[in-house]
Amino acid sequence: MNFHDLIVKRRSIRRYTGDPISAEDVKLIFEAGLLAPSSKNQRSCRFIAVDDPETIQKLAECKPAGARPIANCSLAIVIGSDTTLSEPWIEDASIAATLMQVQITQLDLGSCWIQVRGRDHSDGISAEQYVRDLLGIPDHIGILCILSVGHPDEERPLQNVDKLCWDHVHIEKWHAGE
Ligand SMILES: Cc1cc2nc3c(=O)[nH]c(=O)nc-3n(C[C@H](O)[C@H](O)[C@H](O)COP(=O)(O)O)c2cc1C
After folding, report:
1. How far is the CA of 84 from the centre of ligand 1 (A)?
2. Is the pLDDT of residue 178 over 70?
3. Which numeric CATH code is attached to 3-168?
4. Which of 20, 27, 44, 174 could covalently link to 86 via disulfide, CB atoms 3.0 to 4.6 Å apart?
């Protein structure tokens, strides 16, 4: 599949069959994250692969809404970054997450980005703190998101290239009113 077809095919997949993901596919997914570019080539990203069902259920409770896709995934990937290595750690981790999602699509698997950074778990406890405590992640690792990954149990339409927001693209300078 060429790259354009791949990014047209990529959709957030939130329902999974529960079948395991092969070790070869898991390796390719992590290779995509580890191959991602990073600021000053600091390779700040850190990943935690979770396939223990009990821990997966707990990760699905990291925030009150929007984290349910984790509950039925086969693999949850917590994506963070060493904030002492990279001031733009959020960008480093975002690029890694995106490349991993594209690789996941290429493998005919599905994934969904579950936002952790900046979200609340409950009163006074951030989703980030909840995940940090659950997995023993040290304070200097910022936690961006969790990718829920699995074999798709839903069909999503391809992205519609005819409905792209071309008005978001400005030519040569910003055109007021657009
Ligand atoms: C930064 C970011 C945060 C997101 N957070 C969540 C989330 O917490 N839960 C969720 O179900 N989807 C989440 N998504 C997925 C978006 O809802 C999804 O990408 C968007 O609706 C477009 O749909 P598509 O991915 O199928 O093209 C997130 C996506 C991004 C890029």
Report:
1. 27
2. no
3. 3.40.109.10
4. 44
